[in-house]
Design brief:
The chain is an alpha/beta fold and 401 residues long. It has helices at 38-52, 79-87, 100-107, 131-138, 157-161, 175-186, 207-213, 227-233, 247-259, 304-315, 336-350, 360-368, 382-389, 395-398, and strands at 17-21, 56-60, 91-94, 114-117, 143-146, 170-172, 194-198, 219-222, 237-238, 267-268, 272-276, 285-289, 292-293, 298-302, 319-323, 354-358, 377-379. It folds into two domains: 2-173, Rossmann fold (3-Layer(aba) Sandwich); 178-389, Rossmann fold (3-Layer(aba) Sandwich). The longest helix has 15 residues, at 38-52.
Amino acid sequence: MIKEIKTIDNFNFENQTALIRVDFNVPVNKFYRITDDTRIQYSIPTIQKILSEKGKIVIISHFGRPKGIPLKTHSLKFLVNYLSKKLKITVNFFGDCIGETVIKKVNKLKNGEILLLENLRFYKEEEKEDENFAFELSKLGNIYVNDAFSVAHRFHTSITVLPKFFGKKNVLVFLKREIQYLDQFLYGKGKRPITILLGGSKISSKIEIIENLINFADYILIGGGMSYPFIKIKGGKIGDSLIEKDEKIEKTLKKIFHKYQNKIEIIHLPIDVVAADSFKNEANTKTIPIHSIPNGWMGLDIGPRTIKKFCEIIEKSKTILWNGPMGVFEFQNFSLGTRFIAKTIANSTEKGAFSLIGGGDSLASLRMENCDKKISYLSTGGGAMLDSLKNKMLPGIKAII
């Protein structure tokens, strides 16, 4: 079924108006200068392809969480100059995304011209799978192009409802690229050894991934806040380390340990941690075994023995996936583990390994070490990537099948 989905190469866009759903929800500083343009970079080839065929382009996206309220701080207007320079063409902007005036602007577009519309989330209907809102958006083009993998897991109007109004004129740009790379982990198609690194604070979003990938991975390395529930059910003392409070998590982890007894050696937990007496960069610290964190102390980074162990595994791996930091890396004093992991994956990639990294924090740590360009593939969709690794059909794909 997925093979039947049309890609951008199946269409000639001459004299056509392409309504492109992108994800230009990019991080910006207080001056609205873009600090990471990865998501935009991935959409540039799509835009250029349509322009080269003398098509017309209408771009729709969300930015931030204005919750249905038009806010100047959440306008997409700041993108105009950047996109114009990047594409070497004037990008027009209009401060709305539906209505008669918008339709008139679209109808005035000439072949090879671009119109960027205002934030979809200025309408609360965008996040409610609203048929009427989708119908109004559908008037803005005759080919729908979804080039927003990072929001393909969302049940939002422009992702799941809008494609229904375009029949066979639906295009998924990201599908082939993302599926091709994720399959290396989902079905063990990558070169071995295959290593999965999972970090961050929320284990609830990644338990299914562990269950799904334990059959294909050679190593599953777990760090960050994710590791403490594991240590706790094994009888370790985690002090005041932050963990998700959910009774189901403990039961599910016990079930994993019982169900996969013969494969449990695949899962590698930290040996030691850098513990702190408070949640701040200037806290007092000590490096101790992870299973004996005293009350009043919390683990905020993996320790040197764990760094050495994890890096040795990464160095001998041929296929590597990473999502989530190894500690509170935004605090300089607790960023060492995450930074070492980032550098080691980059070095292994330069030596021939395939690496796929997703999630905002993981990508940020790569940029901190100036090694984001050394990774095989950076996935712009943290949540979408996680849902894919659970072997779930993403809503944005299902809507087009």
